[in-house]
Amino acid sequence: MTEIRLLTPTGHLGFTMLEPESFLRGMAQGPDFVVADSGSSDIGPYPLGADEPCSPVEWQTHDLEIMLVACRRQGVPMIIGSAADTGTDRGVDTYVQILRTVAERHGLPPFRLAYIYAQVSPEEVRRRLRTGVRIAGLDGRPDLTEADLDRTDRIVAVMGAEPIVAALEAGAEVVICGRSSDPAIFAAPLLWKGLDPATAYYAGKVLE
Fold first, then answer.
1. CA spacing 20 to 30 A to 42: which of 82, 131, 135, 158?
2. CA gyration radius for the chain?
């Protein structure tokens, strides 16, 4: 049976700073991937609507720096979901800039960085509604209407594992994702390694 080791150093990147000693002990075990989520529904809708992080950027930088330096020195791929708490385009760009600054500061050799946006323009959603596309409400809530869009500042879709797998297929060594489902960021490397979807998503759910 194939063994694939995933290390996740924190339940919410940047929300409470990770312990370097604990993380490095995990890295010493030889993980195949390091995976961490930076988003949470626990923070409520305000950060997404305002496009603001709920965690100090210094804490996010602390976590990303420790993770990136260790991963690149050991050659371990790194996957980050829901960048900067919200997974907006701004969040993705923030993390990409942090990583580039960290890489330069530490003189890290070049690596392949992929970043995946998840934000969707209200105009595109409105266009789809007008072509008859139904956007169903969750848990019995009403379907989306144009009136809802009129009151909406920001829309971020939730990606599954597929775009992350595509980034790994393209040779990415570090992947920064916009809004992503928790299990997807863990399932993606397992799917890329050839595990069947049922096993990969079950492992993703257990790990998240």
1. 135
2. 18
